Amino acid sequence: MERYTSTQYQAKKPNANGIIEYSEGENNVWRDLYQAQIGLVNRHMAKKFVEGLAIIDLPKQRIPQCGEVSERLQKITGWQVVPVPALIAYDRFFSMLANKQFPAASFIRTQEDFWYVKEPDIFHEIFGHGPLLTLPQITQFSQKLGELALSVDSSFHVWLARIYWFTVEFGMIRQGDDIVPLGSGLASSPSELLHAVESKDVLLRPFELIEVLRTPYRIDIKQPIYYVLEDLDQLQSITDSDIISAIKYAQSLGLKTAHPELKKAS
To answer: What is the DSSP letter of 174?
Structure first.
């Protein structure tokens, strides 16, 4: 759900039948990404993510159409995936979440960006988010954040985005005695997933709402800080809390910039 002011990529538009036509080269990028990532995902990602990936049963050799993914999700959680340009504003993003729609950027990364891409491409959107959209805790959490965003001034949106970023996008979660990756940004990035589980420089912190709200993030680096959920039920505790009051308190405290790699963040 990253937000950008510019992108090198062009959105792919559906034809009259609602089908996005991808080239052989684009389908090959999907195939190669899937092959590069599936072993890492099965080895390192949260069990719930892996189970969701099996349920959604994505094609391995070609880019799936949003319609076929939506058909499966509708039967499970009532959600659908809708193709959008790479750049959408917070208000549209949250409005779609409120209406059980996940916005999927329609392009796929180039070979030059194979291991890490700043923009959310179709592999990130479908392979990264699709399995999470089979989990009712994730979809209910996302919908409630979207509904909350629509009910408040847009100045709160960037704060709400941090909650989404450090859970659905780049969240970690306890699994028995281990801490494992959960977020879509980790599942869809071959290099960042390994960074999250292997780097000695990564900071793992328990998910505390005020701390999360005060933590800026950057989209152009591998994340130096990951917040850890105790379990998926904690997501409901977050949305059941008074998030707007928490944001106002976090605003009074100011953003944290203790980590040197976050000093350029906003």
So the answer is: E
Contact between 62 and 31 under an 8 Å Cβ cutoff? The reply is: yes
Angle between the N-to-C axes of helices 243-253 and 157-164, in degrees from 0 to 180, rounded to the nearest 10: 100
Hey, what amino acid is at 229? L
Beta bridge partners of 84: 105
| pLDDT for 2 beyond 90 | no
Centre a 10 Å sphere on the Cβ of residue 88 and count the other Cβ atoms it contains: 17
- In-domain check, residue 101: yes
Q: 89-136: per-residue pLDDT in tens?
A: 999 999 999 999 999 999 999 988 988 888 889 999 999 999 999 999
Give which of 138, 131, 120 is closest to 189, Cα–Cα: 120
Predicted local distance difference test score (pLDDT) of residue 260:
61
| Cα distances (Å, whole numbers) of residue 87 to 149, 210, 254 | 18, 28, 28
Query: What is the rounded distance in angstroms from the CA atom of residue 188 to the CA atom of residue 36?
Result: 10
Which range of residues forms the domain containing residue 51?
Answer: 24-253
Instruction: List the one residue out of 155, 154, 151, 253 whose CA is nearest residue 212.
Output: 253
Q: Is residue 18 part of a domain?
A: no
Domain membership flag for residue 14: no
The structural domain count of the chain equals 1
Residue 56: inside a domain: yes
Q: What is the pTM of this model?
A: 0.93
Question: Cβ(97)–Cβ(145) under 8 Å?
Answer: yes
CATH number at residue 184: 1.10.800.10
User: Which among 74, 60, 63, 59 is positioned nearest to 14, based on CA atoms?
Assistant: 63
